[in-house]
Amino acid sequence: MKMRANFFLLIPCFLVSFYNLSLPLLFFTSLLSLLPLFVKLWLVPGGFAWRNPELNPGKIPGPVGWPFLGILPVLGSHAHRKLAALASSMGATRLMAFSLGSTRVVITSHPETAKEILCGSAFSDRPVKESARLLMFERAIGFAPSGKYWRHLRRIAMNQMFSPKRVSSLEGVRQRVCDEMTEKVSKEMAGEKRIVGLRGILQRGSLRNVMESVFGGGLGFEREEKLGFMVKEGYELIGEFQWGTIFQLGGVKRRCHRLTLKVKGVVGQIVEERRREGGGNIDNARNDFLSLLLSLPTEDQLSDADMVAVLWEMIFRGTDTVAILLEWIMARMVLHQDIQTKAQEEIDEHVGKHRQVQDSDIPNLIYLQAIVKEVLRVHPPGPLLSWARLATHDVHVGKFLVPAGTTAMVNMWAITHDPTIWKNPWKFRPERFMEEDVPVMGSDLRLAPFGSGRRVCPGKSLGLATVQLWLARLLQQYKWVPTTSGKQVDLSECLKLSLELKTPLTCRAIVR
Ligand code: HEM
């Protein structure tokens, strides 16, 4: 092949000297002569990043994409749908190879292969993108490389921060924040427009809930506001990096750097203040993540810098996921009045109208739980499981060899919309989960919106407890109906770091 390429390079030289051709023509013929080389580098299954044939001996099928860019230009804000369609059209639902710039990626749209990837030890790392490094996530749970430090953080998270005891001890915070949210709903309904903009209320409530869980109360409006802006900015920046390994724009990097300095300033100061107050004293009666980290035994203690990274990640991960999921659920409630009524009847039967729903009522609200599951199925907040995995060594996935250093993704959205797995997958029908109890915590890969395996979401119980309680209380107190303008709820989606409703939900809330 090399000899052939050299031979083709000789052609323009020969043409110029022999026929005395003009420069533009020379340029054109030179381009032509490079064609074979170009074809060799690019026209292979999976495209440019898979150009070395040793990397793909089993020929994992996949789109060729664009030269140098791979399929980056075609993904956009519906990447999960485009990838699902590509895999299906190429008969590559088990495993498909593609290129994101020069990054080699495989993706599965099949639950069995998803289990192999998520639960196998070969994929226990994450590809650390520059955005994650710049935003300090490399020292936090989500992006710390699988090793001693990550295992240490995971242990603290599972045994302490998100233990069932701690999740239930935070119910007071959840209830208080929900009171504030319902107050805001009533205020907006009493306003001139008589409509509720739910996105703002849920985002604010979710942020407040995370802040209180992480730092306890009394942070002050100004700091809370600042941290809220920082989370927003972080989401925007990660979004801009999301699919890019080649567009590492200088401007975005500078913004990341500035944001990190701000986070270190604000969160670092809170840590320092708490230390001075004796925050590590176990008897100080505080019940937040920061106090917990400060009161760990000396051998488990984290440095202040690492503590800032871990706490910042909790705020970052815990805010949007919960708000986005609840906005999708409420959109479905407004759209499907019959389903809403059925859930309200269940609440009336098991709780009544004279006291507020509590965590302890949730196990009795089976239909409400089914609604949450159905929304997680139809609109998974992380359709591609948000953050991918990285192969730490060569590994066989099914019949294919996946080389070390390959990024692996699971298209959970494709799995939850696969008609061979789910009957009428496009129909919103919570009843399906009354007929068959499918767990959502990661043991059944047909529906694993929190991921699975060693890197499964550690905040899943806290996230689910929050969403279920708030949904129950919002449905107990109000009937949610469309605005009077006659505009239907718009279910168009937009994939940023999470899968969001493209148009923020506005509706009316009528006291029941
Ligand atoms: C509806 C709520 C949530 C959803 C749908 C969700 C989803 C996910 C998913 C899909 C992953 C990747 C799992 C994998 O690779 O297998 C993840 C990881 C993670 N989530 Fe969540 N999450 C939610 C709430 C939360 C909350 C409330 C927190 C913390 C306050 C949190 C903290 C994390 C962290 C730290 C990781 C990284 C784990 C690791 O790499 O070891 N999440 N989440």
TrEMBL record:
This is Cytochrome P450. InterPro entries: Cyt_P450, Cyt_P450_CS, Cyt_P450_E_grp-I, Cyt_P450_sf, Cytochrome_P450_78A. PANTHER family: CYTOCHROME P450 78A7-RELATED, CYTOCHROME P450 FAMILY PROTEIN, EXPRESSED. One of its GO terms (molecular function) is monooxygenase activity. It comes from the Eukaryota. Keywords: Heme, Iron, Metal-binding, Monooxygenase, Oxidoreductase. Its cofactor is heme. It holds the Pfam family p450. Belongs to the cytochrome P450 family. It comes from Centaurea solstitialis (yellow star-thistle). Heme binds at residue 457.
